[in-house]
Amino acid sequence: MSAAPVLAIDIGGTKLAAALVEPDGRVAAHDRVPTPNAPGVDGEELWGALDALLAKLLADAGDPPLAGVGAGCGGPMTWPAAEVSPLNIPAWRGFPLRERLRARHPGLPVRIHNDAICVAVGEHWLGAGRGRGNVLGMVVSTGVGGGLILGGHLVNGASGNAGHIGHVVVEPDGPPCACGGRGCLEAIARGPGLVAWARQQGWRPGGAGATGVELAADARRGDPVAGSAMRRAGRAIGLAIASATHLCDLEVAAIGGGLSQAGRLLFDPMEAAFRAHARMDFARRARIVPAELGQTAGLVGAAALVFAQDRYWSAD
User: What average pLDDT does range 27-49 have in this prediction?
Assistant: First the structure.
């Protein structure tokens, strides 16, 4: 294994993050900026923001030699070519992310996967799923995504998009989803969807903005609508995990992403729904836990695509 760090990247609907990750998984340097995701932003503007972030991170660290580049980005995407079309980033449709990063870092391995898959990889490599063979990693934030480790190895699926638990239907007559379906987990539990539902029920945020973080804070202060919204999200996630556990015989479901920071407001109804619907004995053994690596899980997982390729990378 190289002693040089990996340049790790995490691209989401609300933030662009980058880090230098050492071979032992330690995050040696880290920076982030808001994702330019307003209406009218084009793909090149978004790429420019990412390029500037990477340039600053590397310059601040003294431009060290790199072992490679690993990145997580919202999906869907073609894989392994990584032409990305994140549902929560309209500016990128078929954007050639891997090609651009290869041009920026010629001669280095560049490996890109779904951002939630990178969370799953990070949690299996060094976090809540370490030492377990069968792990679901989830991101609950602007979107809801997931990744599967089965038999100790990342499952890619036919197109590299395995693990899209955000599009498991948990409420058949539920709200429309950006994927074109209805009642998907993502449509119910993603932060902006949760805020929209709470507003429809009469929630009025105290500040000018309205975010999942603010909703959770109001729930913590006892706001009844905000509390109902968090229970609604937790129940939907617990239902989806119960189904995934029956299908995949999971040991651990590790939940990360911004909304997971709500803690027990989200995890208590999630656990209750899971226990109510995971009825087979083997499924009831699974545990739902917070992602131990916190907000760096996706970055650590992106680095593992390079450092631990025997388990997490099966393409070129």
Answer: 94
Strand pairing class (68-73; 6-11): parallel
Residue with tokens 């638990």: 165
Cα 34 to the chain's mean position, in Å? 16
Q: How far is CA 68 from CA 142, 241, 273, 301, in A?
A: 28, 33, 41, 13
CB 148 within 8 A of CB 162: yes
Q: Can you give the pLDDT at residue 211?
A: 86
3-state secondary structure the chain: CCCCCEEEEEECCCEEEEEEECCCCCEEEEEEEECCCCCCCCHHHHHHHHHHHHHHHHHHCCCCCCCEEEEEECCCECCCCCEECCCCCCCCCCEEHHHHHHHHCCCCCEEEEEHHHHHHHHHHHHCCCCCCCCEEEEEECCCEEEEEEECCEECCCCCCCCCCHHHCECCCCCCECCCCCECEHHHHHCHHHHHHHHHHCCCCCCCCCCCHHHHHHHHHCCCHHHHHHHHHHHHHHHHHHHHHHHHHCCCEEEEECHHHHHCHHHHHHHHHHHHHHCCCHHHHCCEEEECCCHHHHHHHHHHHHHHCHHHHCCCC
CB 18 within 8 A of CB 9: yes
pLDDT 10s digits, 93-126: 999 999 999 999 999 999 999 988 999 999 999 9
CB neighbour burial string for 76-112, b if at least 16 within 10 angstroms, e if fewer: bbbbbebbbbbbbbbbbeebbbbeebbebbeebbbbb
Q: Model-level pTM? A: 0.90
